[in-house]
Amino acid sequence: MKKSSLVLSLSICFLFFxxxxxxxxxxxxxxxxxxxxxxxxDNVNTFDSSLSIVSINKRMLDDSSKVLANDxxxxxxxxxxxxxxxxxxxxxxxxxxxxxxxxxxxYTKTSIKIDSVILSLxxxxxxxxxxxxxxxxxxxxxxxxxxxxxxxxxxxxxxLNTNGLLGTxxxxxxxxxxxxxxxxxxxxxxxxxxxxxxxxxxxxxxFANFDSSLSxxxxxxxxxSAFKKVFKGLAIEPVSAGGVGSLVxxxxxxxxxxxxxxxxxxxxxxxxxxxxxxxxHNSKPTLLSSLPGGVANAISRTPANDWATALSSNVTDKxxxxxxxxxxxxxxxxxxxxxxxxxxxxxxxxxxxxLASTADDKLLPPPQxxxxxxxxxxxxxxIFVNDxxxxxxxxxxxxxxxxxxxxxxxxxxxxxVQSILTKHxxxxxLRLYAxxxxxxxxxxxxxxxxxxxxxxxxxxIAKGRVVVGGGSNTNPQVRMRLRLVYxxx
Length: 489
Description:
Helix content: 10-25%
Number of strands: 32
Largest sheet: 12 strands, antiparallel
Structural class: alpha+beta
Mean pLDDT: 88
Oligomer: single chain
Distance between the termini: 53 Å
Shape: elongated
Number of helices: 7
């Protein structure tokens, strides 16, 4: 009997503590949701509500991301069954590592024999069906073109004119990380993450005919500027790609891996010497760190399939987001905020859910999306002050935007929503997209004004696409929505 009473008493005590813990947890959740907007007061009744979203598919035509000295360039083809085609070509100039002296030893140029010419490109990753072959061509930039060292080109510049074919290469991008032995001139090296493309030996003989004297018709070895006048640079152009296609990312600024190497022999001090000569891409660090030294990346998009249909027929149940350049984005409006009464907002969270789409196992979604606000005319975008930008920088862990394990992108815009309800600031149209660099106006805390800014979001250009549930999706579990957790004043 005593044992039964003891068990009953312990059960009641355990139940009491469970109820007490649950109640405290509920209060703490509400208090925690306040993110310091709500003072830590107990017994606050919170409410959870969702507001409808109006979402519209848009195509980005005014991309302004530029190729900077730390950016990889993209080369390849995508045949996306949802979004359509992508064609990425890269252009860059070269420079000799020796000027003022003739580097091929034999000034008479009669004994020079070109063994081979190899273009090496530093592989910095891939996107798409990298297990399928990709074929690229190497051409010379036409003499009528000029790739300026002092210009910073956007990623969607028009393709440059080129001359004849110098070389071609078919490879599997997913194999480029494998280490292989390179034996050359009795020297064995282990190489990985390099695309090696044999070029026509005629290019080597052409360089050997350059001279170090300015009075010579081809003074390529007189100076860097002289070299770039007689040789404008190289173009890397895709030819074909297997499966849904792929892009490879190339680091042109890695001079240990990206270089044009001429293997040759010539008479040197009375005997034949076998050696090599390298030409590299050089940036302009002495001018501005943002100058890449003559690099352009022409990336064209051809909308097709589901994305083209969505753009032409005002589809709103799904939003198609393709990363820059000239990708797509979603316009978002939350009309319910205009009529929502003044409350204490503990959490305002835009919830965006990734949907399954064809080939999304190969054409992966962006790891992060970005959200900003458009002005009345739609020609400028502004950052979320206080939600993302603070006096100490950008607080992405609080603001959100990363793809979560539950296939959602979530954005914390609590302070922005609170200012709409309390201060009656304008309920802006929002922009959801996947930029390489977000070009939004940032707030200057010193003078209280907005100034143009740039925030890097993605690691590589044109990498990532995703289909998300729109505001009119019939499935409430994936429908884009604004979740509000609030309490009465």
